[in-house]
Design a protein that fits this description.
Largest sheet: none
CATH architecture of the largest domain: Orthogonal Bundle
CATH topology of the largest domain: Farnesyl Diphosphate Synthase
Structural class: mainly alpha
Low-confidence stretches: none
Oligomer: single chain
Distance between the termini: 27 Å
């Protein structure tokens, strides 16, 4: 992997997704570089909607990544340090391109203002955009050999995505976006007008509490599945420690659903991750 490209990917990840960056600090050197490249790619793709403003330029940027993974124009593609770092990681650890292409395809949902229809759709979206990252990170830690982390990656991916969107609920609402499963909000008598106008209600609070319960259930199942994994693979799932902290903050939000979420200081995040890692059995 190009040293300069790897350094750029690490800096990009730290600036745009610090939680995942902090988690990579627990990984062995070499593997950490590849995972940082993977996560930096994800951070770039996840930010396309906010940078593009409109669907058409967003589609062009996503298609650029598809072409990069399919091997089209690699000479020019390699001039992009994020792509250079990712492609080196893909080659070194024999990462399958299919899951990465499906991640890009799933992110096309972000470009439009359609609400997330139901919980099943959300879980599928989380699987394609978050669970896959855990699966590939574990594969990197396993030196490029595919490994079955289905339950750990699946449940943690849904918990990660759901907790993230619960925290971002107010921000997304002010921008006319609704990533939480609409069927659960509608079942509690919530309408889009009150969401997009920032109006709280008993129904919205009930739906929010129900979604917190869903996230908590997936998080518990993920924790159990992670404990069953071989010790060398567990560091790929270190963000579980931060998600537990974030979930507690969401449970304490009371009625301030549209307010910015409470943040955790960077030093506390690093300490939480380090404590989680220290508690893992030694291989």
């Amino acid at each position: 992997m190009s040293a300069e490209s790897n350094k750029h990917a690490a800096q990009f990840l730290k600036a745009n997704d610090p939680d995942r960056y902090f988690a990579t600090l627990l990984l062995p050197h070499g593997a950490s570089e590849a995972v940082q490249a993977l996560y930096a790619f994800n951070a770039d793709v996840a930010s396309v909607r906010d940078r593009a403003k409109e669907p058409a330029p967003g589609e062009i940027r996503l298609q650029w990544w598809v072409d990069a993974l399919m091997g089209e124009g690699h000479g020019a593609i390699r001039q992009n340090p994020l792509a250079d770092a990712l492609l080196d990681a893909v080659e070194k650890y024999r990462l399958p391109a299919g899951p990465l292409q499906r991640l890009i395809a799933a992110r096309r949902f972000d470009l439009y203002d359609d609400p997330m229809p139901d919980l099943s759709s959300f879980e599928g979206y989380a699987g394609e955009t978050v669970s896959v990252l855990y699966q590939l990170a574990a594969m990197i830690l396993n030196d490029g050999v595919e490994v079955d982390t289905g339950d750990a990656a699946g449940h943690l991916g849904v918990a990660h995505a759901l907790i993230g969107h619960l925290r971002a609920f107010g921000f997304n609402a002010t921008h006319g976006r609704l990533f939480l499963p609409w069927s659960i909000l509608a079942a509690n008598g919530v309408n889009e007008g009150e969401v997009f106008s920032g109006t709280s209600s008993e129904g919205l609070l009930a739906a929010y509490a129900q979604l917190i319960d869903v996230a908590a259930d997936h998080l518990v199942k993920a924790e159990m599945a992670i404990e069953a994994l071989p010790t060398p693979l567990r560091p790929a799932f270190a963000p579980v420690a931060l998600l537990r902290s974030y979930l507690r903050l969401e449970e304490a939000r009371a009625e301030a659903l549209f307010a910015p979420p409470r943040e955790i200081a960077a030093w506390r995040k690093i300490a939480t991750l380090a404590w989680w890692a220290w508690r893992q059995p030694r291989s």
